[in-house]
Amino acid sequence: xxxxxxxxxxxxxxxxxxxxxxxxxxxxxxxxxxxxxxxxxxxxxxxxxxxxxxxxxxxxxxxxxxxxxxxxxxxxxxxxxxxxxxxxxxxxxxxxxxxxxxxxxxxxxxxxxxxxxxxxxxxxxxxxxxxxxxxxxxxxxxxxxxxxxxxxxxxxxxxxxxxxxxxxxxxxxxxxxxxxxxxxxxxxxxxxxxxxxxxxxxxxxxxxxxxxxxxxxxxxxxxxxxxxxxxxxxxxxxxxxxxxxxxxxxxxxxxxxxxxxxxxxxxxxxxxxxxxxxxxxxxxxxxxxxxxxxxxxxxxxxxxxxxxxxxxxxx
Length: 315
Fold this sequence. Notes:
disordered N terminus; 315 residues; 2 helices; Porin; mainly beta; 16-stranded antiparallel β-barrel
């Protein structure tokens, strides 16, 4: 499955990037004389873990109006392949409405909401323009054999707020509730302290703390201890080019513990590149992330890797 994803990416991404830029063609709207700027895009997500679970998602976007990464309207069609624990692939097709816009002078919202033919899936959020506050909800499949075959889902809703926001110091807190199919509810609490040590280089040191409590641990076949706690110091560099491109690299090493277990090493690494947030013609990103904890794993020796990329541009 991973090799298939790499071949698909090798074909689709260069072909898309090779398209000759043209002036966005405006389509006159019949109401209010508004003009619309259509766009098209692709998103690819590939993940694998030490339990031999592989997930491939390929999404195509058709936007009838694209005015930048934070303002657009359109529809997405996604094909997903789930291969849990080395088993055969289960396939799903999802269709989403995908919208984003501003609300008042200081808020942004986005909603990608659709269905796989069985239930509502997707995500929605509203945030302050400076990211100091955010409210979010997400609904997705549990990527285990029983999760895919029996239709086990989770809905995760919560809020994020900056408790302290200074030029070189930020403290952010997140609280949320995750409701699973069945009886299990999971309370999430997270906190992150960020201290910028080299502003010109974009270097910061961080302490990320995470805790969750499951009301019905071990109900199905996903990783679900009664309590989980993680503390992980992170060093991060986040820089911008003169053209506005963002480059991020982060590395963390700490400790984590589950109910009834001993403290174990917690590891995290990430690299990400994003196109300029101010661009009204292009939205692009590439991300690679590693950790030894996820929704479906977390035991000793576990690891999880996910790669994502996306490209949306006016046509």
